[in-house]
Design brief:
Blueprint (H helix, E strand, L loop, with lengths): L6 E12 L8 E13 L4 E5 L6 H8 L7 E6 L2 E2 L5 H4 L6 E4 L13 H11 L5 H14 L16 H13 L5 E5 L7 H18 L2 E5 L3 H7 L2 E6 L2 E7 H6 L4 H8 L50 E4 L2 E3 L10 H11 L1
Parallel strand pairs: 3-8, 3-9, 6-7, 7-8
Antiparallel strand pairs: 1-2, 1-4, 4-5, 9-10, 10-12, 11-12
Helix pairs in contact: 3-4, 3-5
Length: 338
């Protein structure tokens, strides 16, 4: 019997209702519109896209910090999308989150040891001397010193505060940690330390990460697979090397072409995306990228493309991208045609 994926997100939708317009017509922000993907145990899925595309909304819906409008979110085969809080509580041990701003996510009145101990106390996992031992171990695991247990958040550097947030997420032994832009507020040198820490923890503990980011270099370094979002939808999802070596969606191609190269001899041709991102209140019909796409055709303006496989593990939502055939299959087809 095949083991179910750790996380299965199916047709996830999050809409925000706005006040009615001049003539009483309801207005809705289409923050996330029909997002679907799976995650296996121990893998990292990078979720990328422009600011406002909905990637952080997806992340927060998965851990139920935001209530989804519709769709399913299965964790270990159980749908948690619309569970009552009482039923959701035990599931939170498997789902933890590390936030973008490490300072605002920590209670400034609590000491660091109490912040890390809180999840252990809430779930009744340790008390007394055992609690102190577990907290000290978590500090050591994320690279903090035991003599910092009594410090308050403002006494830590930005990188140390993020390590504190990671220790808090690790406390209940989760299966999946949602990392919502966890290094974007840190200096580049500190970013590398935190990314390496996440990699070490994944290797040692078998963690899975949903890694939300806009820095493609970081995503390329840490991810096993990458999903690209545009205006509330996933337009491409593929293994990391496939996506960075041979992007198929025009939006993905433009994103990667915009990444600066550290080698001045690399004269990469940049593909600027023309036009503005459409409003999520009134997204365009058909393909949502067609208003900015350099290869759009008449069909793209009328019919919304669905994600479809063009190679093993590589899916793209584009009418103009055909499945790639292996060399052996192509030769066989050519011989058949003759």
């Amino acid at each position: 019997m095949t083991e179910a994926p750790l996380l299965e997100v199916e047709n996830l939708v999050k809409h925000y209702a706005l006040s009615r317009g001049w003539f009483g017509a309801p207005r809705v922000v289409h923050a996330v519109d029909g997002v679907s993907f799976n995650m296996e145990r121990g893998e990292t899925l990078g979720l990328v896209g422009e600011s406002g595309c909905g990637k952080s909304t997806v992340a927060r819906c998965i851990v139920r910090l935001i209530e989804p409008t519709s769709g399913s979110i299965k964790v270990n085969g159980r749908d948690v999308a619309h569970l009552a809080e009482r039923d959701m509580r035990p599931m939170r041990r498997d789902l933890q989150i590390v936030f973008q701003d490490p300072f605002s996510s920590l209670n400034p009145r609590h000491r660091a040891g109490a912040i890390v101990a809180e999840p252990l106390v809430n779930f009744g996992l340790a008390e007394g001397a055992e609690l102190e031992r577990r907290v000290a171990e978590l500090f050591e695991r994320v690279g903090l010193r035991k003599d910092q247990l009594n410090n308050r958040p403002h006494e830590f550097s930005g990188g140390q505060r993020q390590r504190l947030g990671i220790a808090r997420a690790l406390a209940v032994n989760p299966a999946l940690i949602v990392c919502d832009e966890p290094v974007s507020a840190l200096d580049v040198s500190i970013q590398a330390q935190v990314i390496n820490l996440l990699g070490d923890l994944q290797r040692d503990l078998g963690l899975a990460y949903l890694f939300v980011a806009h820095d493609l270099a970081v995503v390329e370094h840490i991810s096993h697979r990458v999903a690209v979002m545009y205006l509330g939808e996933i337009v491409e999802i593929a293994p990391r090397d496939d996506l960075f070596d041979a992007p198929q969606h025009p939006y993905t191609e433009a994103l990667l072409a915009a990444v600066p190269s550290p080698d001045p001899r690399n004269k990469r041709k940049r593909r600027l995306i023309e036009g503005e991102v459409p409003s999520p209140i009134s997204p365009p019909a058909g393909c949502r990228f067609h208003t900015r796409c350099p290869i759009a055709e008449a069909r793209c303006k009328l019919e919304a493309p669905r994600l479809r496989a063009i190679a093993p593990g590589h899916e793209v939502a584009c009418h103009l991208r055909a499945p790639r055939i292996s060399g052996k299959s192509a030769k066989l087809n050519a011989e058949t045609a003759r």
